[in-house]
Structure formats: C-alpha cells, structure tokens
Amino acid sequence: MATTWRTTRISQFSEEDYDLVVIGGGATGCGIALDAVTRGLKTALIEKNDFASGTSSRSTKLIHGGLRYLKQFEISLVRETGSERAIVHKLAPHLVVPEKMLLPIIENGTYSKSLTSLGLKVYDVLAGVKKEDRRKMLNKAQTLEKEPLLNPTVVKGGGYYAEYRTDDARLSLELIKTAVQKGVHAANYVEGIDFIYGEVNGEKKIRGIICQDSLTQDTFQLKAKQIINAAGPWVDELRKTNQSLSGKHLHLTKGVHIVLPHVVFPVRQSVYFDSPDGRMVFAIPRGKITYVGTTDTDYKGDKHHPRTTQEDIAYLLQAVNHLFPGLDIQKESIISSWAGLRPLVHEEGKSASEISRKDEIFFSESGLISIAGGKLTGYRKMGQRVVNAALKAMDRKHVPSKTHRITLCGGEFDDFDEVKAFKEALREKLSQGELPDYYADYLVGNYGKQVVGVLSNFEEQDEADKELALLLAELQFAIEKEMVLYPTDFFIRRTGRLYFDIESVYTYKLPIIRYFAQHFAWSEQELQEAENQLDRALTEASTFPPEQQEKVLQKVES
Ligand code: FAD
What we know:
The protein has helices at residues 3-13, 27-37, 67-71, 75-91, 113-127, 140-146, 168-181, 235-241, 310-323, 379-393, 416-431, 438-447, 451-460, 466-481, 487-494, 497-500, 502-519, 524-542, 547-557, and strands spanning 17-23, 43-46, 62-63, 97-106, 136-139, 155-165, 185-187, 190-200, 203-213, 219-229, 250-261, 270-274, 280-286, 289-293, 297-298, 336-345, 360-363, 369-372. The protein is an alpha+beta fold. Strands 3, 4, 5, 6, 11, 12, 13, 14, 15 and 16 form a ten-stranded mixed β-sheet that branches. It starts with a helix and ends with a helix.
C-alpha cells in the first residue's frame, strides 16, 4: 500500500482479468474485497476519492448492536450486529475497544426503568454477551457516581452495558491493507465512470468498467466477470449508469457530530441519552475531546460535502444542556464537527429515523450487484452475503467465508489484556521522552502493533519539535504503508486529527504540506491546491452555515 506503488498498480490494472471488481473503498467495499480474495477470487477495488472518505469516516464510530433498533423490533439486525461486535473486536483488539455505555433513565424519558432493564437484557442475550460483561441496572446514586455531570433532578437511575468504540476510517484502512496483503489490487482516487458490456449466452452482461485516475485524468479499463457496487451514498448513481435504477432506491439521511474540548464537556464516560424530542444522542469522550451526536434528517444536497448547520448545532446543544445543565455549553465552544450520510434503503411513509438500517442487495439484469443500507458494525456479514451472491452469479463452487479468523493489520494481539499491557509499556516509554503520554492511547488505538514502525520513523527524525517529529513519522508511515496522497487524507482518514485534535492541524499544517510537496515533487500550483483543499476541510469542520444558506449553496454546487 505504498503511495508510490499506486502508479504501478494502475498501470497494471488493464493487463489483468479479474473475477471481481469492487467499486467503493468504504468499510463495506473494503470488507467485501477481503472476503472475496480470501475465498479465492481475483479481486480489485477502486475508490474515487480517498479510502473511507464517504460515510465510513463520518459515523458515530461505535461497533454496536443498535439498542434503539430493539424498539423497532429489528431483532435479526440487533442479533447480527450485536454478535459481530465481539468478533470484530477479536480481529482488531486495539482498534475496536470495549466501551461501557451509561443509559440514564430520566423522568418522562424514552426508556422507562423496566423497559431499559428488559431491553438491555434482551440486547445481551441476542448478542451473546459474556456473563461478566452483561448489563447492570443502577440506582440514582450509582448512576450519578458513574457520571456526576448528569442532572440530578431528572435522573432516576441507569442502565450500564457493553459496547465497543472504534475509528471507522482506520477500520476501513486496516481492512483494505489486509485485503491487499492477501492479494487484492486496490487504488484510491480512481473513479468507475462507465460499464463495459459484452454478450454472454445472447444476453447483455457487464464485463468490466471504465475507470479514470483523478490524478492524471487518464482513463483505463478493468476487465471483470462480476462487479459489486458498494458506493455507499452513490450506489444509485452507478445503478443509473447501469440503467438499472428502478424499484427500490436510496434514502439519504444526514447525521452530524460536534466536537467539544474535553475540559468543556468533561464526561467521565460514554453516555447514551434522551434529547428533548425523544431521539437518543451519544456523548463520547475520546482523548482531548468529547464528541456528541447524532442528528437524523433527510438529505438531498451535495453528497461530497454535507455540512453541519446552525440548526444541527442548536439541536445537539439543546440535548446536552438539557441533561447536563450545569455546563451551559455554547456554540462558540465547538472546535470541530463532521456530517455523514446514511445510505438507507427507502421505505414509503417512514421518516428518517424510522427507516430500517438493514442492508439489501440489488441485482441488475446485466449482472451488477449493488449493496446498500447496513452498518459499519455489520461490514463483515455484508461482505459475506454479497460475495455469496457473486459466487452464485459466477456459477462458482461455494467456498465458506474466512474473515472471522483473519486478523487485521496491526491487530496481532492475543487479547485485550495484551493491548492494555502494550499501551502501558508505551506510556512508560513516552514518559521518559519528550512526548505527552496522551500519545500512548492515540498511537496504539490508531496503529496497534504497527506503532513499532511509526516509532522507528520517529527515532530517525532530527526535528527539535517532538510533536512535529511524531507527525512526520506518521506521515512517513502513511506514505510507505497507507497510500496517502494529500494532506486531507493524512489529517482526516490516517490520523483523525481534524476531528480529535484540530489544534495540531492548525499548528502543523504548513510543515506537513511542505513535506508532501518535497516528497512528491509538487509544483507551486499543486502545493497551493493541497493547501486550499485542507483549508476547505478545516472550514467545513469548524464553521456552521444556517440550513437555508446551506440549501442555496448545495443548489449552486449541484
Ligand atoms: P461509504 O463509506 O460512503 O463508502 C462508499 C465509497 O464509494 C465512498 O468512499 C465513495 O467515494 C466511493 N465511490 C462512490 N462512487 C464511486 C465510483 N463511481 N467509483 C469509485 N468509488 C466510488 N454504523 C455503525 O455500525 N456504528 C455507528 O456508530 C454508526 N454511526 C453512524 C452515524 C452516522 C451519522 C452515519 C451517517 C452512519 C453511521 N453508521 C454507523 C453507519 C455506517 O457509517 C455506514 O453504514 C457505513 O460507513 C457505510 O459504508 P459504505 O462503505 O457502504 O459507504
């Protein structure tokens, strides 16, 4: 996955004859590629922007069963995603980490005490949660002890249960890196623009795809027996290109998260709480910050740049200030944000939050297989199902999926205890050097065992500013191992810093851009473009237009 290798890969793409080409490098597409290659299919994957640049870097970043889907009686969805949590944790224990969730029971809230108790019990049973991890019901004093910031006048008790936290973009990256290790040919910044058809037994069937490299604008062909469309919010666009967009279609809803410094919203632990309109919102502490989300509103604007609006902020802050009234958090405290689009399958008459999160597979007459809906948590099962469908369509012998036992890059730990010990050893090491021990969590969470490579780069730096030296070490790693092309790839998807440590982006953006420019021999114009792109990402994350203005802007852009 070295960045330099990308050019070689692209030049070799047209020489191959693939069994399967996957369109889309989000969690779904990367999961499909890993499943396919390990079942013996010669597989390629193309991503039109950066890996995980769509919804898979903009989620709530939980590997969860979706407690609220129980209320909608989505039993099979909860069972599947619930039991997937422990499996995905095993595959990448540094990246999918146990995170206890507190669900406060409040007066006139969504969940009563008995419903919470029963719901969490069913949740544990469906997900097969181990005895020691099962839910505990807390009284008022115990709930306030777990989270003293909660409003004592409305809190009546709480449910305390097991979930997992992750980083969606890093999960997608580790999936594609693992898939590439197993033999997948993958490239980012390559767009699938049209399909190639041929005649098979007198029928018009897809036989490949015309692609465009966004860096050079060159076009080339990929030959494939089968193509899977895992384009997330863009699934219907490819179905349209394939002239197969009929019947079911996507319904996009926007979800926003806001980021506050942890000192402003110093929750001790993750909380899943009622907003005044009865929806549920997460507050999740992570290193230097706490993030809060999400909203769920219908969306028809520009899919590449959904924005957090004033109205989204007002909604989330109202929810926070309602249950944590002592804080009185104002919008000026928000340092960053992200907005993502859920690629849901439309259901007539249902509102945004009522639509099922189940995944669905669509088959076109010419052979395009599209997958939509679903959750990050269910990426592995979705991959399994869609590859089963592809094997069948290709008339291939069924080979069982193996992904439940394929450790992801960086996840080579025996168990979570080893992750903790590894982190402690790093914390100890950092405390003797010039980096704050905050970086122990950050580095192990991001890179797992691969931290050894990052630290070896760090030791080679002769930069006096150690924080910059670390960033340069990470960048070197991303260039050598993670096909990073632009500063936005680096600050958003490789390191998560734009969301979780935006200050470091403002402070170090220029030296990092200069390193890119020098390393890739950019012209002055290329450097300027990269800087503009990063400035736009910073503006999008930290400024919030009113809804109305956003709608006008979207109209102009589209
Ligand atoms: P994407 O990540 O959008 O990937 C599709 C990719 O296809 C994009 O990168 C795009 O650039 C690429 N593409 C499109 N067209 C082309 C083309 N023509 N050629 C090449 N590439 C193309 N799930 C959970 O399990 N836990 C959560 O906590 C959670 N929270 C969420 C919160 C929000 C606000 C949202 C919006 C979703 C959340 N989800 C969560 C759901 C989860 O994020 C999504 O189900 C998942 O990320 C979708 O991944 P994907 O790969 O299908 O789509």
